[in-house]
Structure formats: structure tokens, C-alpha cells
TrEMBL record:
Domain Rubredoxin-like: 173-213
Organism of provenance: Diplocloster agilis
InterPro entries linked to this entry: Flavin_Rdtase-like_dom, NADH-dep_flavin_reductase, Rubredoxin-like_dom, Rubredoxin_dom, RUBY_RBDX, Split_barrel_FMN-bd
Entry protein name: Flavin reductase
Cofactor: Fe(3+)
PROSITE patterns: RUBREDOXIN_LIKE (PS50903)
Entry keyword annotation includes Transport: yes
Length: 214
């Protein structure tokens, strides 16, 4: 099976956020879908290994920040490639509180949700939630999973439902790849000529974290 066909399914790129006590926390998700219109409900899939999963269960509510094509890709590095258990992800991220929940300001819309049911799979929890409120923030197109891979050149975190190990992908070979998040550098300036101050646009790791792929 060609696993790249999954990139053609209709996914978005979202920050799912909740509270760890009084501290905001969250993670990247791409598997969110509306279930019903009245009452408005949605389902979101979160890996058991994501610290956000247990926080959502304890708090009973969560917010969804819908990233746009113009959102800073560094948000995906912040929320997708480090754990909220050890890091205050919102410390340096501009956000507002909606219904007592953190919402990323650099998003095109948001939803606040109350959990009404869960379904456990071997690796993920599927949360069913009633939507409490939502609104548009920016008049720009939402970032799709396909856009993230093809234009931003990012990779899915290993805990994502849509994660595909690199060896299974059939894309063309590349020259330099971030060893932390999988970002592929394909800029016009040769990688060797980039300044030492260059950092990965996704996870903000230094140039030294890139490895050459023959």
C-alpha cells in the first residue's frame, strides 16, 4: 500500500489546548471532524502518550485553535515536538482565554468544547465533545494537512494518528533534514552556505541538528 495516499484525506492542522490545573497546555492534532450540527459536536483523536490527553480527561473541556496557511510554523514545533509535562508551551505564545481555555491568537478560528464521551483505541483516545462556542479570528485559508506537508515541508509528530515513518514514504530523496521534527530544507541557498544562526522554521532547532541525506 502507498501510505502517501493518506495525505489526500481532508485533514486540518490544529492546536488542541486545555488546562493542567491552572496552567495552559496543548498539542498538535490533525484528526478532528464535526459529527453533528444540532447540537454541534465534534470528535478529536489524541495519542495516549500526549500529556494533553490526560489533562483533557481531568479538565473535561478543551479548545481547538485552527491554524491557517499564514500561521507561524513554529507553533507546530512548539506544540508538536515537545511535552507539556516538562514545558510551558504557552509561555512564549500569544494567546487569549475563551470560556476559561487558552486559544492561540495566530489562528484563523477557534472552538471551545465540553467532553461528553470517549472511545479508547490501542494508541489513541477519541474524544466526543459538545461545542460551547466558536468564532473566526482571521480571514485567511485554514492550513490543511496536505499544505503542511507539501508547502511548509513539515512532518507529523510520532504521536499523530497520521504519522508515517520516513522509510515508508515514497517522496524523492532530500539533502538536509531536521533530525528533531523532520523538516526538509529545500531553499535556494545551499544548506552549507546558510549562517550558523539558521534555525529550523518548525521546531527552532539549530543548524547543527540537520543531517545530510544521500
Amino acid at each position: 500500500m502507498n501510505v502517501n495516499v493518506f495525505h489526500n484525506l481532508s485533514y486540518g492542522v490544529y492546536i488542541v489546548s486545555t488546562l493542567d490545573g491552572e496552567r495552559p497546555t496543548g498539542c498538535v492534532a490533525n484528526s478532528i471532524m464535526q459529527i453533528t450540527a444540532s447540537p454541534a459536536t465534534l470528535a478529536v483523536s489524541i495519542n495516549h502518550d500526549n500529556y494533553t490527553n490526560s489533562c483533557m480527561k481531568r479538565n473535561g473541556t478543551f479548545a481547538v485553535s485552527i491554524l491557517s496557511e499564514e500561521s507561524d510554523p513554529g507553533l507546530i514545533g512548539t506544540f508538536g515536538f515537545q511535552s507539556g509535562k516538562n514545558t510551558d508551551k504557552f509561555a512564549a505564545v500569544d494567546h487569549v482565554m475563551k470560556d476559561g481555555l487558552p486559544v492561540v491568537s495566530d489562528a484563523c478560528g477557534y472552538l471551545t468544547c465540553r467532553i461528553i464521551d470517549t472511545m479508547e483505541t490501542s494508541t489513541h483516545t477519541v474524544f466526543l465533545a459538545e461545542i460551547m462556542d466558536g468564532d473566526l479570528l482571521l480571514n485567511v485559508p485554514a492550513m490543511t494537512y496536505s499544505y503542511y506537508h507539501k508547502v511548509v515541508k513539515g512532518k507529523s509528530p510520532k504521536n499523530a494518528p497520521t504519522y508515517i515513518p520516513e522509510e515508508q514514504e515514497t517522496a524523492a530523496k532530500v539533502s538536509y533534514v531536521c533530525s528533531v521534527c523532520g523538516y526538509v530544507y529545500d531553499g535556494e541557498v545551499p544548506f552549507e552556505e546558510l549562517p550558523d544562526s539558521y534555525v529550523c522554521p518548525i521546531c527552532k532547532q539549530p543548524k547543527s541538528k540537520f543531517i545530510k541525506k544521500d
